[in-house]
Design brief:
The radius of gyration is 11 Å and the shape is globular. With about 55 residues, it is an all-beta fold. The chain has strands at about 1-5, 10, 20, 25-30, 35-40, 50.
Length: about 55
């Protein structure tokens, strides 16, 4: 589950699509307030991305 840092809304990760910034960082945009929320890829290099929020690591 992901939590919007701006409004506190909680989402199952399948409820919102992650995106990648030009710098290579992952994030999701809250459909409720439009806030951007950072995500971290915890999978090994070359594997399918497993995205979590920093406080979940």
């Amino acid at each position: 589950m992901w939590t919007c840092r701006a409004c506190g809304e909680v989402f199952v990760d399948s409820e919102t699509d992650p995106a990648i910034r030009h710098s290579g960082e992952f994030y999701f945009t809250c459909p409720n307030c439009g806030g951007n929320n950072d995500l971290v890829n915890t999978s090994p290099p070359g594997e399918v991305a497993i995205l979590v929020q920093l406080n979940d690591v």
